[in-house]
Amino acid sequence: MKPVSQPDRFQALDACHQQIHAHLAQLTDVLEKLQAGAEQVQYREQMRVIEEFFTGNARQHHLDEEKNIFPKLLASDNAELVQAVRTLQQDHGWIEQNWLELSPMLRAIAEGEDWVDMAELQHNVEVFLALLHDHIVLEETLIYPEARGQFAEELAARVKRLVS
């Protein structure tokens, strides 16, 4: 497998954030319809797609950040930046914990089961939305720009060494 370049990696991370937003909007829409009395059968496929996305792609996205973005930032001498990365790492744990509670409910709806308590589902969705929203804002406003800047500096240093 060909290694992924840093610019491509950032494009992939940004694209995943867009997909997260789209799936969260879809989840919110479906939940509103279910709470208004719509039959679950109409939304089984959407719930399956949402559950599979967050179980697969979104989890992998967090692993990619932990492996490819966070380590260099944690080595920074900027205490505010290091604290922001540690906050994001903690967020990953909270997001995962909330997902472990939410995922079975979405899967149950997707499979046509009727045990899901709508109030509990609503609460878990609200927590999940808040966690992911705040998390993505911190990444996109501080972490990703900083990581891109570090990558640009590394690239410039390599070019300088090659030219020298």
From TrEMBL:
<dbReference type="InterPro" id="IPR012312">
    <property type="entry name" value="Hemerythrin-like"/>
</dbReference>
<feature type="domain" description="Hemerythrin-like">
    <location>
        <begin position="11"/>
        <end position="146"/>
    </location>
</feature>
<protein>
    <submittedName>
        <fullName>Hemerythrin</fullName>
    </submittedName>
</protein>
<dbReference type="Pfam" id="PF01814">
    <property type="entry name" value="Hemerythrin"/>
</dbReference>
